[in-house]
Protein 1
Amino acid sequence: MVQKPPTILTENEPLRKAPIVSIGIIDWLRKNLFSTWYNTIFTILGIYILYLAIPPFFQWAILDAVWSGEDRTVCEWYDENKVKYRAGACWLLIKVYFNFFTYGFYPDELQWRVNLSFIILAVATALMFIPNIKKKHYIGMFLFLIYPFIAFFLLSGNDTLGLDHVSTHKWGGLFLTFLLGSIGIVFALPLGIILALGRRSKLPVVRILSVIFIEFWRGIPLITVLFFAAVMFPLFVPQGVEIDNLLRCIVGLTVFGGAYMAEVVRGGLQALPKGQYESAQAVGLGYWRMMGLVIMPQALRIVIPGIVNTFIGLFKDTTLVFIISLMDLLLTIFTSNTNPDWMGFPFEGYIFAASVYFIICFSLSRYSLRVENKLMVSKQH
């Protein structure tokens, strides 16, 4: 049988248009805000609410605000008929109390020690984030093994080093809030990893103890934990032994955050396929090497959003320490509002506190998203 020669196309197929990868502002508005009649109603209602809220707030917070002066008379005054007039936001309050909001009752002449401790921390942390810097493990060892002692001696003082002692009762403000949040975050993660591994252990005693610990601390509110740490905890130590109130608070925050972190890490461990465990065992890795080199890095990468969410929640929960008389940022603002010379300006201080918490928490969220995207890209390659 003679085969027919292949058919040769003499005409090219018509070219297809490239897919649209971007749309104009009009099309974006029509697609996202006015796609249906009810979306249109909600969009118009939202615009109307913003119109009612934003211009008055902008007028109060920016245009009519008082930024400088000597005392409250520049923010409000009385005419000859004793009618009170008030300008916009009195940001002069933040300027007057900024040192108190930052350091609490920490002595003014010793505040350089707080600044120095945070400068050392900022420099070491910045070096950790530089991509191409070598021997980062030495920086990490410094942060976790050496820096805590340096910060402790700088903040509390030491007679041998010639540093005057400063009681923790004088620590306060944003400095104390950041200290509590940082220490709670640093210790909650390793505690959560240990508890998560214990809850998945094949040893019944370890598993039961881990479950009891996690469920107990997750089943009570943080305010109860702080009360227990401040009031009940001293009853369980030998008579004559006194434990600093700040240390008790740190322990309470750590165990509370660690219990929640354990469930986040356990979710990452359960999300890994069984083949990862079997592959690690097939190459002869023991339990701890398997967890440290194969399982845990993958599990933590999966639950980065949950870890950061727990970090943010723990940092914001530090505001509850005012219950046990620790002068955090929120309590310094509340204290300033009780000063007769500045009573009547409560919103400025709380807006300042909200802005500080938002900046810190938003920065944590953005950085975690960057790390997550970077790890996912490296995983694809």
Protein 2
Amino acid sequence: MLKRRIACILLILSALILYLFDNETVTLALLLALVVMPAVSVGLLAMSGRNLRISMERAAQTGENPVVKVRIENPDFIPLASVEAEVVCTNLRTGEADSYIIRNTPMPKSTQEISLEVMPRNAGRYEIAVSSAVLTDPLHLSSRQVVCSDREYVTVLPEIFEMQLSYASDAAMLESDRSADSRRGNDPGEVRSIREYVPGDPVRNIHWKLSEKTDKLLVKELGNPITDQFLVILDTAHEVSQIPAALETIASVFASLTETIRRDSSGLSIAWTDPGTGRAVIRKIVEEQDLTSAADEYLAVPASMHSVFERIDRNIAESRYAHIVVVGSMVPDGIEAIANGCQVTVLLYGGTGTVTENNVTTIGFESDTCKGDLAGIEI
């Protein structure tokens, strides 16, 4: 833009010199044109773009990457020579930020849409915001800034892999207060139906009173309790907040673990740190949609947050879970506060092997080998 201004000044000076040496109508017209045109161009800039609006909305995703539509509206009768807006895409979890430049020439009384494909580097909740736009006059001699304030959010999920878990025991599930109708269980307080005995049925499930009345063995089909079976906690990866590969691996292990348990089990709750209060957020997971909604929240927690165990809520310690699993980069100092006699497993980034101490089992995994490190683990 500075070069254009210098060139314009030189042209005007040249026309002025030419007019002084050759005082004719043609040279006068040329001089006036070179003076008037920049003035008109700058004047149009001053009058235009006052009602310019830039907004965004999430578009339907057709490929691997999310797409956002940037809408530029010019409701005035004056055309805009050039609009340049910077769109900043920030990963709320890792703090990574990328900038995209949008350029457009809106016509009078028009609305134009530009599709922006976000190229995420890591999983996380992304804030896509445009804070200002720069308007340029037709001759690109001057510019001014217009304040905008619109933003959109998209969630990029980590890789989810099959973990092939094995489960140690269902004994603690007897404390549950609800039952699943889709599978047989072992809750003596919830009888789903009565049927005839078949070889292999547990003897303890035989309904002796009805069997005596009907002269044939009948068994009770017990409900499968689903409340408070598993609590999976994503402990903020404060120690590895500056290592993108570690953050990506921890998020992938947490998402894969919760999805696998959700499919295998009827009772799952997950927890993470609330970035506003520092306390634990607990969500009950029943359907796949519950996990998707939860991902919008836990993938927005900055990795620099302190561990959730530093400000643990009492309701976690007082709740009865069959098994608590923690995914993080260190063994939390407050792990004993929530154990409450139940089984506890820590999936530890950077750890090696499996160690059990004080009813807490630690299983290590690394970025390159996490699928093999966690294949077939027992919880």
Protein 3
Amino acid sequence: MPCPENLEIDGLRHKRSPARVLTELVVGYSLILLAIWTPGAIQRAFMFAAACWIIATSLPGSSTVYGLRLSRLRQGWWIIAAAVVLAGGAAVFAACIGTLQIPFRYRQNPGNTTGYIIWSFVQQFILQDFVLLRLRRLLPSARAAVLAAAILFSLAHLPNPLLTAAAFFWGIASCALFLRHGDLYSLGAAHAIFGLCLTITIPDAVDHQMRVGLGYLRYQPPATTHSARPP
């Protein structure tokens, strides 16, 4: 997927040294991985540390202003429309083959849907504004930065094979679209649409309820399941 090489991004003009940018990226990504691969209270501590680090390194003077400009939403509306069409087609196909479902965690607590939507936007913020723009400063080309960001994004979804593959391809697509349009909101919405589509079309036994890291390995299937299809 082509990435425009001559695109000027506000966040890439900051005067932080490459060493500082690399340190910010390595520490932030390491804290994310530690949160993914640790349990309980330790995980929450690493999640809090990662959030604090990302916020602290994304204050004024960094890259974040670019992706959060509401004015750019009008350039990416078609991304949301395309996601709806693709997800709708996948849902129809899943209904035909009998895999359409209401995931147990959403049936048990409908509020999980809202939580996932918010988390989708957070992930896109981290991927584009925290990871991609720093890689764009460190690497010689936009294509290299997009590929590196997609690889880091997919590695954060191990050992879930479905999400690891999906994260790689979505990472490439979303990063390329971000460099072209600079709209974080449409990408967050598309992420949520695609993610929720996976939850209702892929059996929990395959995706382990969309878990990654230690959660994927420790997954225990719920006692009951519920299908969206009528009996």
Protein 4
Amino acid sequence: MNKKYMSMKLTIVIPSYWGRESEVGWKEGDAIYDHTTPLDSEGTLLSAIQSIERLEDKDFQLVIIAVATAEEIESKIEKKVARIIKSANPGVEVLLFGQSHLKQIHELLRRDSEGKKAEEHINLLQLRGYSNVRNLCMFIPHVLGSDVAVLIDDDEVFEDQEFMTKAREFIGRKIGGITINAVAGYYLQPNGDYHVTKPYRPWMKYWDQYERMNEAFDKVIGTEPRLKATSFVFGGNMVIHRNLFTVVPFDPNVRRGEDIDFLINARMFGFHFFLDNQLSIKHLPPSKTHPTWMQLREDIYRFIYERAKIETQNAVEGMPKVNPEDFDPYPGCFLKPDLEEKVEKACKLLSEEYLAQGDRKGGEEALNNIPLARTDALPKFDPFQKLCELQKQWQELMRFTGQKDIRSRIRDIICNGVQGI
């Protein structure tokens, strides 16, 4: 490989999501994540960090972001994650980033940014919600002076010893006249296959998410050439060059599916994701803790919002227009005019399933998704205009925190991560 690409500085960032003790569980007002680790258990983070030992290329920094579902457990979770980091020995430098570090950065920004700009910068750096966490996954490599951010999740393990070599192989290079600023890898399930396997339920006939995902996976992962444009990405296996991560942010207004939403944002600003069908990581997710009706509701809000973002896109010089068909078969099939019809048919069948099991609350909540899709899920603002404003603010934040003095002081806060706990 070209020495130029081998010498690029890389930072791997792994967000780790933690909730209250098992006996307490999720409380109203807590952040919603797919599968948080209870504070009184060990979770998967240690295995993820230890799997780094298998990698041949260890020329990178590793940052673990400690994410809490509630403010009152933030300190305990930082201590817990710090202990896990200290017990691991992956052969690379490991830094911890939590709410205490973010507060210090906020204080620095209040002192050094001017008025309204300070609040804009602070609002962009938050530790609640998938998109905000992913933005920190790009912000931290930025202030650490990295050329490339590699985003991994804590419920994954490296099995391919050449993973980092492959992650470096295309990023930042020009291929066929196109600069590769974003490379997506993919997940291998516990059985070693890349397909999503979920028990079929009748309501899935209309909410055919897994079927369309597997169709897209076969089309992109399962065929040659090795590197090709993709309509989907995985948040836990993403390689992003600073040419992209200093320009386009994740959108905090999307509730979940922030990875594919980021792909849509990137496309709108002229960047393409390419999937490398040799860049795989083993995905070992724990069981999801939230009921099906709630998971479905989060997806409904997400697709309604993304569809509105595409529909409200207007002509802006230098920005290509995107269409739902650009993202077929997945997620394109959920970004079209028949989305409400899919919601109605799927939720009625899901409600019947709950009622047949004697779960009246589940049945009511599933049905409640139907009016919510036509009311509350609809954004109360212009999503495309909001994205354009967000993008300008993000670029300004990247410029401001890229200044030598500011960057140096933020770097000191981050590099004191584990020691400061």
